[in-house]
Amino acid sequence: MWLFQLCYSVGDSFEGVVFLEATSHGAALWAAKQEGVAPNADCHVIKLHPDDAQVIPNGFIGRLLGVDELAELERILMSRLHRKPAASSAKRRTRGLRTRA
Q1: Domain coordinates in residue numbering, the chain
Q2: Are 21 and 12 in contact (CB under 8 A)?
Q3: Contact at 8 Å (CB) between 63 and 20?
Q4: d(CA 101, CA 91)
Q5: pTM more than 0.90
Q6: Pseudo-torsion of CA 47, 50, 56, 57, nearest 10°?
Q7: I need a surface site. Which of 23, 45, 56, 64 has the fewest CB within 10 A?
Q8: Which residues of 79-92 are buried (b: 16+ CB within 10 A; e: fewer)?
């Protein structure tokens, strides 16, 4: 199973996003249609990389998310990010300067 992100809009108006588990792009669209998700909206489908799919909380999968819920999801995902360690070129020197004798 893969996780697909289905983004819905009508004209320039955002309608929402649905995350659905499915075996293919077509199966994700079919499942959304069967659930009656935004029937008159245009849909853009993205297949998520397994690493990205793993971080989406289960409570956000399988239902239409509006702007407020997407903002909440973004806050959750940002809080889970780990900062990269500083590059070795950015680290401070811990030793004193060498002097010539």
Answers
A1: 2-80
A2: no
A3: no
A4: 27
A5: no
A6: 130
A7: 23
A8: eeeeeeeeeeeeee
